[in-house]
Amino acid sequence: MLSIYGVPEYIVFEYKLNWITIAVLIALLYSIICSLVFFKIIVLSLEKSKQNEKNGLRQEIIASFILMQSTNILLIISEFLVIRLPLTTLFTSYFALNSPQSLMKSILFFHYIMFHSSQLLTVLFCGLRVSILYSIRDSIIKKAIKILPIIIFIIGFLTAFPHFSSGADCVQANFPFNFGSLLIVSLFFASNPRFASIQVMSFISFSSISILIFSWLMFKKIQEGKKLSFQKSSAQSVKVERTLTVTVVILLIPFLLYFLIAMLVLLGAGRIPPGILSYIPSLRSILLDARTHVATLYFYFTHPMFKTAKGRICPQTLNS
């Protein structure tokens, strides 16, 4: 991939409506609608926090879900800035003429903070879910939700900083994208390809394997049925358990697919045609949208906390 900065054909480029713009607008509308639903989750969670504590709903799970989804939504916003909007060719002439380093480095810095933080916060959400199922002490769980997010954001900052300090560039995207479709890339990858690949794969591998292990532990405990006692639980208790279980599965599937794709790309580097590799950013965006928005919609429309029920949630429901 070559830089477009200073190339006359890109400087004089004129935007025309294309299929990429339409696809990006549809994705943007979808993201806005789902983000509004997530905002409603936050509002209702704050309004019902005291009531939920009295009814036995675990605020640590709700808080970790909100943290996880907040970073996922911010990651989607950064993906629009780094990948999706540049692909539309709307800003091709501007980037070719100016190459705004401060803007591009800031966008990439924000993107990689959210990329790493969102993965670790997803692991935290699944880990807390399993910890509650296995009756880990409340004091440990409460400390975890207070301390671990801070550590996660520090890790996200430190791992993203090299992308800010190394600079950024705009390059032409390969086929099937149009002439003028751009990608904002970090020069850190260009100067340290092996280290950067190991860093990315380490995060993806750790997150995917951790979520897979937590999912196995979760299903193992559910099948045992010793702590959950579904038959004695209220209908709402069962719904809460089902919501949290399916939410973890929704998070797991895109993670595993992304992990598989990343492994294939890494192991097949140099042997995979550039035309096929160019689909990877778009496929990653689709998986990110699925992981974030499907989880939000499912959580909102199935969790009893967001429904106006006449009865109160059973106080013995400790696993929600």
Automatic annotation (TrEMBL):
Keywords annotated in UniProt: Membrane, Transmembrane, Transmembrane helix
Residues annotated as transmembrane: 20-44, 65-87, 107-132, 144-161, 198-219, 244-267
Top-level taxon: Eukaryota
Coiled-coil spans in chain: none
Official protein name in the record: G-protein coupled receptors family 1 profile domain-containing protein
